[in-house]
UniProtKB/TrEMBL annotation:
This is histidine kinase. Coiled coil: none annotated. Gene3D superfamilies: 1.20.5.1930, Histidine kinase-like ATPase, C-terminal domain (3.30.565.10). Residues 280-370 form the Histidine kinase/HSP90-like ATPase domain. Keywords: ATP-binding, Kinase, Membrane, Nucleotide-binding, Phosphoprotein, Signal, Transferase, Transmembrane, Transmembrane helix, Two-component regulatory system. SUPFAM superfamilies: ATPase domain of HSP90 chaperone/DNA topoisomerase II/histidine kinase. The keyword NAD does not apply. It catalyses: ATP + protein L-histidine = ADP + protein N-phospho-L-histidine. Its EC number is 2.7.13.3.
Length: 371
């Protein structure tokens, strides 16, 4: 579109320049002027592919009619296109010859004011200035392109450095988790297995077997997490391929809590229906974290788990009663970030999570998750 407008402008200016240069009519028939202006416009439009046809038309029109618009545009395109001093010198020399020829040849457009001084002035105005402007425009475009390329290269290098630092940090965390957490959990599983074999109390043996099973499950989950941390980015791992727990696995989680002495009651309200995995997985994690907090802080207090299926949301409530008596022994340590992480997970889905103490010493964790 830009070169179409350029062709139209060159054709119009060529018509005015050829019809009456300096107020002196050319004496050419109107159809001839229209043809010359049309050829100049087409050559200017074609300059997006090759500028030399416009230069040829401009040279002929200038020598014959002192028609300057085609030669002016050709000089600008030459400044943007020509590479090397030799080509520029050859073009300037050719243009100087073209500007000097009207003094010797004469034509319909020659006027009494035409002379060496005017010829030099026209050469500067029609050839020199457009050529310099074209060279400056090309140099500016090259500088901007080089600056853009350099900025993109620096950005890529910065991203690569950030990725390397992230990978190193992930590898360090994976090593720490493997050397510390996995080792301690493995010891728990081994001691639970030894207790199951050596004890003569059936109830203690059952409890030891439960502890061993939970420990082995924790080791499997930890192995998946370590695989995610150690795997390169965007590379699928066993953790990504294995299905995460959802509400379909909730009964097994509740049975584990019941085996540890907590009286857990589950109630479902509304019509159960399949939902997106992210919704079910988030609801599962809310209940899991709430039961973990009950184990840590409320001992064997009775706990109610409510799952309410709404039309456009899923509500989950975990409410535990006050502990029946102060818990004796060492408290279970925790980082204190479980509910914070859950709140962020629920808010990412557009939901809300609320946790508050209840009258009488109980505690409530409630989540609303849009479906």
């Amino acid at each position: 579109m830009r070169f179409v407008l350029l062709g139209a402008a060159v054709a119009g200016l060529s018509w005015f320049a050829g019809a009456g240069q300096a107020g002196v009519p050319s004496g050419l028939p109107v159809p001839v002027l229209v043809l010359i202006a049309a050829v100049a416009g087409v050559a200017a439009w074609h300059a997006r592919r090759a500028w030399w046809p416009l230069a040829a038309v401009g040279a002929l029109a200038y020598v014959w009619l002192l028609m300057w618009p085609p030669l002016l545009i050709a000089s600008y395109q030459a400044g943007r296109t020509l590479r090397g001093a030799r080509h520029l010198v050859a073009y300037v020399a050719g243009c100087l010859v073209v500007c000097a020829l009207p003094l010797a040849v004469g034509g319909p457009q020659q006027t009494p004011a035409t002379g060496p001084g005017n010829a030099l002035l026209m050469a500067v105005a029609v050839v020199g200035l457009p050529l310099a402007l074209g060279m400056w425009t090309r140099a500016r475009a090259e500088v901007l392109a080089a600056a853009k390329e350099r900025a993109e290269r620096l950005e890529r290098e910065q991203v690569m450095r950030a990725e390397q630092a992230r990978a190193q940090e992930r590898a360090r965390i994976a090593r720490e988790m493997h050397d510390v957490v996995a080792h301690r959990v493995s010891l728990i599983v081994l001691h639970a297995g030894a207790l199951e074999l050596r004890t003569g109390d059936p109830e203690a043996a059952e409890t030891a077997a439960l502890i061993g099973g939970i420990g082995r499950e924790a080791l499997a989950n930890l192995r998946d997490v370590l695989g995610v941390l150690r795997a390169p980015r965007h590379e699928p791992t066993d953790a990504a391929l294995s299905p995460p727990p959802t509400l379909g696995d909730l009964d097994r989680l509740l049975d584990q809590s019941r085996a540890l002495g907590i009286d857990v009651t589950r109630r479902d309200e509304g019509e159960p229906r399949p939902m997106e995995e992210t919704v079910e997985r988030t609801a599962y994690r809310v209940i899991q974290e709430a039961l973990t907090n009950v184990h840590k802080h409320a001992g064997d207090a009775g706990t109610d788990v409510l799952i309410r299926y709404g039309e456009d949301e899923l509500r989950v409530e975990v409410r535990n009663a006050a502990p029946p008596a102060p818990h004796a022994g060492e408290a279970v340590p925790g980082a204190g970030w479980g509910l914070v992480g859950l709140r962020e997970r629920v808010e990412l889905l557009g939901g809300t999570l609320r946790s508050s103490a209840q009258d009488g010493g109980g505690f409530l964790v409630s989540a609303r998750i849009p479906t």
